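ok so i was messing around last nite and threw this chain in just to see what happens. nothing serious, just curious
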Amino acid sequence: MNEQDPPKAVRVEGWSFDGSLPARRPGLPLVGVFLIVLGLFLAAGQLFREAQLGASAFFLAVGFILVFVGMRDRSDLALYSGVFVTALALSDLLSSLNLIHGSGWGLLFLGVGVMAIALVRSKPGKRWGWTLGIGAFLALWGGSDVAASNVDFPTDRLIGPLLLVLLGLYIVSRNRS
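result:
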């Protein structure tokens, strides 16, 4: 383009990731309905204990749906966000039902969920990878909080030495293979 060419204008009709123009679909936008229901659950959960229980159950269902979609579509984002939402909602739901007490349950459930993803996604004959290590770290951290809040034992002082032992085991096992 040189200085004698007339200027050209560009008009943007919309943005999408699929490379085509979005088609207008009749009906209700599901994202809007989801946000309305989510906002109502959160507002009611702040006012009523029973509604907080319902909100936790709702988020647990949303987490399970995200995990299912992540497994079906092989989407890491949906899978990890589903595990995150499921772990925190399960912790909140069980705590609201007075089935568990103390802190650290959400982190423990999150670590177990991340380790489950690593084990399900691992291929035979290959290493589990960094995901299993992060899941184990989160599970140990949450488990130590659970143990410290439910048992009169100083588990918080043992985490550092235990992590050093696990790191040493990892280095020794890595050099052998």
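not much to say yet. The two ends are 59 Å apart (CA to CA).
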